[in-house]
Amino acid sequence: MANTDVETLNSFLRGEISAVETYRQAIGHVSDDRIRSQLEDCLHDHEHRVESIRERIEKLGGTPSEGSGLWGTFAKLVQGGADILGERAAVQALEEGEDHGLADYQRDLGKTHGEARRLVRMELLPAQKRTHERLSRLKKTLH
């Protein structure tokens, strides 16, 4: 079970690292202070999740992933296009990333056990729902 938990948590970790990278890129292209503040809050939430997942993987005796993997490459391409198109497109791209992250947690929660499942169910998934909702609200204010 520990190997399955480590694999699943590493998948979540790569998604969170991708989110951190993508938020940092987006924040660098946002001039509106209100939008930047909202995005920085989401960035900090994702950074916290990266640390929580890394700690759990290490407690399970696993080695945390270092990079964002294939999803990170895709997210960078999407965000790069959004940067050219402006803040609204950047927020839209970030919300799509939040959708993806939420779907990952919901789909793979059942692959975890014990403390790993508790972490996902009680911390990671609720936090992901909060950042997803924050981006959805922000996107609605931009239209």
UniProtKB/TrEMBL annotation:
<dbReference type="InterPro" id="IPR012347">
    <property type="entry name" value="Ferritin-like"/>
</dbReference>
<protein>
    <submittedName>
        <fullName>DUF2383 domain-containing protein</fullName>
    </submittedName>
</protein>
<dbReference type="Pfam" id="PF09537">
    <property type="entry name" value="DUF2383"/>
</dbReference>
<dbReference type="InterPro" id="IPR009078">
    <property type="entry name" value="Ferritin-like_SF"/>
</dbReference>
<feature type="domain" description="DUF2383">
    <location>
        <begin position="6"/>
        <end position="107"/>
    </location>
</feature>
<dbReference type="InterPro" id="IPR019052">
    <property type="entry name" value="DUF2383"/>
</dbReference>
